[in-house]
Design brief:
Layout lengths: L4 E4 L9 H12 L16 H7 L3 H12 L2 H6 L6 H10 L3 E9 L1 E3 L3 E3 H11 L8 E5 L7 H9 L3 E4 L2 H9 L3 E5 L3 H4 L5 E4 L2 H11 L1
Parallel strand pairs: 1-2, 1-6, 2-5, 6-7, 7-8
Antiparallel strand pairs: 3-4
């Protein structure tokens, strides 16, 4: 089996952020509305602005406040199967990078290092020792950061749950596993495989190896 350099998104792929952040977002900006159980949350926040009747700046500030809460990092759990899948990759000899659009630092009057908080969470859940590097976005509004970084690092495969981001990787010549997706809509490209569980993610990467 070929050894791969694999970039893995954090929120929605490794970290089940949506289970905590989505209810908080709607409670704050759209009280009384009950979002669907599987409603998607991603750090490309533009898609949430209209449905929540707020501005992207206000939304980003609210989410950044959540990200520096000790309670969030103590409470949020890994996505089911993530640890086992990453362990499998590690045992197979792949190089693993956590590549996320989470902001690297959060400045809310006082500067917080989101990198340290996030790394501590990965360590607490026994994921940190398995990955080569944790890479967060130094400029949250740089929407091409992840694809540019993937090219700089020479990543072979990306595991991503945002369809638009996934297509950027494909257009850059990368192979992609699109996690938790609608198969019929996104399974048409030879370099993109849809997966609805971490077991399927591992199987997809084995096909790419």
């Amino acid at each position: 089996m070929e050894r791969l350099a694999i970039g893995i998104d954090l929120d929605g792929v490794i970290c089940d952020s949506a289970s905590l952040i989505i209810p908080k977002l709607f409670a704050r900006f759209r009280p009384g509305y009950q979002p669907a159980k599987k409603e998607r949350f991603g750090f490309d926040l533009g898609g949430h602005v209209s449905e929540l009747n707020t501005t992207q700046e206000e939304l980003l500030t609210f989410v950044e406040n959540i990200l520096i809460e000790v309670e969030f990092h103590q409470t949020v759990k890994p996505v089911e199967g993530a640890l086992e899948g990453i362990q499998k990759f590690y045992e197979q000899g792949h190089r693993l990078y956590v590549l996320s659009n989470r902001p690297e630092t959060v400045d809310l009057g006082k500067r917080f290092d989101a990198q340290d908080l996030t790394f501590s969470w990965l360590k607490r859940h026994q994921i940190a020792p398995l990955v080569t590097s944790l890479i967060l976005n130094p400029d949250h509004f740089d929407r091409d950061f992840k694809v540019r970084k993937a090219c700089e690092l020479g990543l072979d495969v990306l595991v991503e749950d945002e369809p638009d981001e996934a297509m950027k990787f494909v257009e850059a010549g990368k192979k992609v596993v699109l996690f938790d997706c609608q198969r019929k809509q996104y399974s048409v490209h030879q370099d993109l495989i849809c997966a609805n569980s971490w077991k399927e993610v591992v199987a997809a990467c084995e096909m790419f190896a």
